[in-house]
């Protein structure tokens, strides 16, 4: 993993490129997140929500089975109803046990972080693009769930700590205020600071 990134270094990158990042953040992404976050809290999830969620999280994979999709939605609904019982390891392991179309287990850690992020914005999204940007080595070549999970948790914990440190840093106030000035119309609800950080990070990763 690169040793050039700390929470301070990452915040500096966001500050340095803030103008470019703001112009590359999509208003549609803000609206989509607000819609999914609002609908996720409801007791019943209709077909439109499930379709949008499927594409947002990245479940449009020809190797994933109908059983996997149904298991994912079940876990999502259970997690939404029990907000204090969202175990990232347990969720990932349950999905891992559902074989794909090739008969192999499927490690869907990034999709689980998307799920948890919708239910609690302070869970950061962790996907291959972000891992590559931060220089975090892939877990794909590791054999077995335990080894893969160990690496993911180590990397995810570091990303979580960075996010929390940035959110508590007063220098992020400027980025939060600029976000509101650029995107938010009078009477509209502003995204949380944690969501703003997620969108900034996504833009930073995509820019590189």
The geometry reads as globular
Derived from helix and strand composition plus strand pairing, the structural class reads: mainly alpha
- The separation of the N and C termini measures 17 Å
- Mean pLDDT, as a whole number? 89
Summed up:
The protein is an all-alpha fold. It has 11 helices and no strands.
Q: What is the fold's blueprint, element by element?
A:
Layout lengths: L6 H10 L1 H7 L2 H14 L6 H11 L8 H16 L6 H9 L12 H11 L8 H6 L11 H23 L4 H12 L9 H15 L1
Helix pairs in contact: 1-9, 2-11
Q: How would you describe what is shown here?
A:
64% of the residues lie in helices and 0% in strands. Helix 1 packs across helix 9. It is mainly alpha-helical. The protein has one domain. The model has no long low-confidence stretch (mean pLDDT 89). It starts with 6 loop residues before the first helix and ends with a helix. It is built from eleven helices and no strands. The radius of gyration is 17 Å and the shape is globular.
């Amino acid at each position: 993993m690169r040793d050039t990134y700390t929470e301070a270094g990452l915040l500096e990158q966001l500050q340095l490129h803030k103008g470019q990042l703001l112009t590359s953040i999509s208003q549609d992404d803000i609206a989509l997140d607000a819609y999914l976050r609002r609908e996720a809290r409801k007791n019943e999830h209709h077909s439109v929500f499930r379709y949008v969620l499927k594409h947002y999280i990245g479940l449009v994979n020809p190797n994933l089975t109908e059983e996997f999709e149904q298991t994912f939605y079940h876990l999502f609904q259970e997690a939404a109803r029990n907000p204090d019982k969202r175990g990232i390891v347990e969720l990932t392991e349950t999905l891992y046990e559902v074989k794909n179309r090739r008969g192999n287990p499927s490690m869907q850690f990034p999709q689980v972080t998307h799920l948890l992020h919708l239910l609690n914005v302070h869970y950061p999204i962790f996907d291959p693009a972000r891992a590559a940007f931060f220089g975090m080595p892939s877990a794909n070549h590791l054999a077995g769930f335990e080894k893969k999970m160990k690496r993911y948790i180590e990397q995810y914990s570091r990303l979580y700590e960075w996010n929390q440190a940035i959110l508590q840093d007063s220098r992020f106030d400027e980025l939060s205020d600029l976000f509101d000035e650029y995107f938010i119309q009078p009477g509209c609800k502003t995204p949380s600071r944690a969501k703003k950080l997620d969108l900034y990070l996504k833009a930073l990763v995509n820019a590189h």
